[in-house]
Amino acid sequence: MKIKAIIHPAEEGGYWAEVPALPGCITEGDTIEEVMANLKDAIEGWLDVANSRHAIDSTDQVVEIAV
Predict the structure, then answer these.
(1) Are 17 and 46 in contact, with CB atoms under 8 Å apart?
(2) What angle do CA 56, 45, 40 make, to 5 degrees?
(3) CA 10 to CA 15: how far, in whole Å?
(4) Which listed site, 7, 43, 47, 57, has its alpha carbon 20 to 30 Å from 21?
(5) How confident is the model at residue 63 (pLDDT cuts 50, 70, 90)?
Protein backbone atom coordinates (compact mmCIF):
# COMPACT_ATOMS: atom_id res chain seq x y z
CA MET A 1 0.00 0.00 0.00
CA LYS A 2 1.24 3.47 -0.78
CA ILE A 3 -0.17 6.54 0.95
CA LYS A 4 0.88 10.09 0.16
CA ALA A 5 2.17 12.31 2.96
CA ILE A 6 3.22 15.94 2.95
CA ILE A 7 6.39 16.89 4.82
CA HIS A 8 6.73 20.48 6.00
CA PRO A 9 9.71 22.25 7.57
CA ALA A 10 8.91 23.06 11.21
CA GLU A 11 9.39 26.63 12.47
CA GLU A 12 11.44 25.42 15.43
CA GLY A 13 13.61 23.18 13.24
CA GLY A 14 13.13 19.68 11.94
CA TYR A 15 10.03 18.62 10.07
CA TRP A 16 6.41 17.72 10.57
CA ALA A 17 4.25 15.60 8.28
CA GLU A 18 0.60 14.99 7.59
CA VAL A 19 -1.33 12.32 5.71
CA PRO A 20 -4.26 14.01 3.95
CA ALA A 21 -6.11 10.73 3.36
CA LEU A 22 -6.07 9.98 7.11
CA PRO A 23 -7.52 12.98 8.99
CA GLY A 24 -5.51 13.77 12.11
CA CYS A 25 -2.59 11.55 11.14
CA ILE A 26 0.44 13.77 11.77
CA THR A 27 3.95 13.30 13.10
CA GLU A 28 7.29 15.07 13.38
CA GLY A 29 11.02 14.44 13.37
CA ASP A 30 14.39 16.18 13.52
CA THR A 31 15.49 14.79 10.13
CA ILE A 32 13.76 13.59 6.96
CA GLU A 33 14.80 10.03 7.86
CA GLU A 34 13.26 10.34 11.32
CA VAL A 35 10.02 11.85 10.05
CA MET A 36 9.76 9.07 7.42
CA ALA A 37 10.12 6.38 10.10
CA ASN A 38 7.64 8.20 12.33
CA LEU A 39 5.18 8.44 9.41
CA LYS A 40 5.14 4.67 9.08
CA ASP A 41 4.38 4.30 12.80
CA ALA A 42 1.72 7.05 12.68
CA ILE A 43 -0.05 5.48 9.68
CA GLU A 44 -0.01 2.00 11.23
CA GLY A 45 -1.37 3.39 14.50
CA TRP A 46 -4.08 5.40 12.74
CA LEU A 47 -5.22 2.33 10.81
CA ASP A 48 -5.18 0.12 13.93
CA VAL A 49 -7.43 2.57 15.77
CA ALA A 50 -9.75 2.99 12.79
CA ASN A 51 -10.08 -0.79 12.39
CA SER A 52 -10.79 -1.34 16.09
CA ARG A 53 -13.68 1.16 16.23
CA HIS A 54 -16.17 -0.99 14.35
CA ALA A 55 -18.29 -3.59 16.11
CA ILE A 56 -18.36 -6.95 14.36
CA ASP A 57 -21.53 -9.05 14.48
CA SER A 58 -21.35 -12.83 14.60
CA THR A 59 -22.73 -12.99 11.04
CA ASP A 60 -20.10 -10.61 9.64
CA GLN A 61 -16.99 -11.74 7.80
CA VAL A 62 -13.65 -10.01 8.27
CA VAL A 63 -11.27 -9.95 5.28
CA GLU A 64 -7.94 -8.25 4.76
CA ILE A 65 -7.21 -6.56 1.45
CA ALA A 66 -3.69 -5.74 0.29
CA VAL A 67 -3.45 -2.72 -2.02
Answers:
(1) no
(2) 135
(3) 5
(4) 57
(5) confident
HSE-up of 58 (CA within 13 Å, CB side)? Answer: 0
Query: pLDDT per residue over 3-25, tens digit each?
Result: 999 999 999 999 999 999 999 99
- Give the type of residue at 34: E
Other beta carbons within 10 Å of 52: 7
State residue 58 phi and psi, 5-degree precision: -65, -20
Interval 50-61 mean pLDDT = 85
